[in-house]
Design brief:
The chain is an alpha/beta fold. It has helices at about 1-20, 40-45, 50-55, 70-75, 85-95, 140-150, 165-170, 185-190, 225-245, 245-255, 260-270, 285-295, 305-310; strands at about 25-30, 55-60, 80-85, 100-105, 110-115, 130-135, 160, 175-180, 195-200, 215-220. The longest helix is centred in the first third of the chain and has 19 residues, at about 1-20.
């Protein structure tokens, strides 16, 4: 009897040790941009141990080019990427095997920005002007709808790829306007350096509302259980941010050097109300309406069944 008890004790101890030292599941996610307040739920989930609680080790990778993460997901080199709803429609139309599995920011952040004290007072003034952009696909998906309202075509403007350099290029007058400027970030950035911007919002100028930032995965992996773990941690982090913005700002700003500054502090505050509180929830009508808009503008070639790439 004593031997049986001893053997059971050894087995229990062994299992306990193995469990304690069990490796967490690894998940890689490509960000859409360098780390900024838009990524607060991921940073807080990491800082407060929410990823560890669900058994995950999450590696966040900043892109050298903001167009790269969806391609890396499609190639199977990343588990997830943060992308944009307009870009998703275009990529699916082009045959890229990616699907939306969650939402980070559920409302538009994108805007068309000019210098407030510059000569551009209306979108109509952009005829024959230079417009800078950073993410391929956005220039047509958003600009075409905004320009059309003012009887302008894409051929009436010159598009220039300025990568990450949105505000600096506009302030230096290398371009007359930029598309892709986030209203929670670039507008604050320009105000801080005393070159305030004037923003035109797509949803107020002929473009249907859409989800700005989404999580995408390879289509063949859309049902992977690891994603449920990930979003459980993200939802907990998001609710923590909303409930306690001051302490979570301290965690975010201390995540690494360079985040604790006036720009990120302002942007953090302006982003709080825009995070998706239920990241795995979805509204297919939003995707249908935006898909119809893109098809009408001949930006995508096919009428897409949104259930195939937008429903978890």
């Amino acid at each position: 009897m004593h031997n049986i008890i001893r053997i059971l004790s050894i087995i229990f101890l062994t299992l306990t040790i193995n469990f304690a030292y069990a490796k967490n599941d690894k998940l890689t996610i490509g960000l859409d941009w360098f780390i900024n307040p838009d990524h607060a739920p991921l940073i807080i989930a990491e800082k407060r141990g929410f990823f560890k609680e669900v058994g995950l080790d999450v590696e966040m990778i900043e892109p050298a080019d903001p167009n790269d993460p969806p391609k890396l997901v499609a190639a199977g080199k990343l588990d997830l990427a943060i992308s944009y709803q307009p870009q998703l429609h275009i990529q699916v139309d082009q045959g890229l095997p990616v699907v939306r599995v969650g939402t980070l920011v559920s409302v538009p952040l994108n805007s068309l920005v000019v210098l407030k004290d510059g000569p551009i007072k209306s979108i109509a003034d952009l005829k024959a002007k230079k417009i800078g952009f950073s993410v391929g696909g956005f220039e047509e998906a958003l600009l075409s709808g905004m320009l059309e309202k003012y009887n302008l075509k894409m051929s009436d403007v010159e598009l220039i790829n300025i990568n990450f350099s949105l505000s600096p290029s506009l302030i230096a007058k290398k371009v007359d306007a930029v598309i892709g400027a986030f209203r929670n970030f670039e507008l604050n950035q320009m105000d801080i350096v005393n070159h305030p911007g004037l923003a035109f919002y797509p949803e107020e100028h002929g473009v249907p509302s859409y989800e700005e930032l989404i999580y995408i995965a390879n289509a063949k992996n859309r049902k992977k259980p690891i994603f449920d773990k990930f979003f459980k941690a993200i939802q907990k982090a998001t609710l923590t941010i909303v409930n306690d913005p001051q302490s979570t700002w301290k965690d975010f700003s201390s995540f690494r050097k360079g985040l604790d500054d006036e720009l990120n502090k302002r942007a953090y505050k302006d982003t709080l109300s825009r995070f998706a509180l239920r990241p795995q929830a979805h509204d297919l009508n939003t995707y249908r309406e935006f898909g119809n808009f893109l098809k009408e503008k001949n930006i995508i070639q096919k009428s897409l069944q949104v259930e195939t790439f937008a429903k978890p």
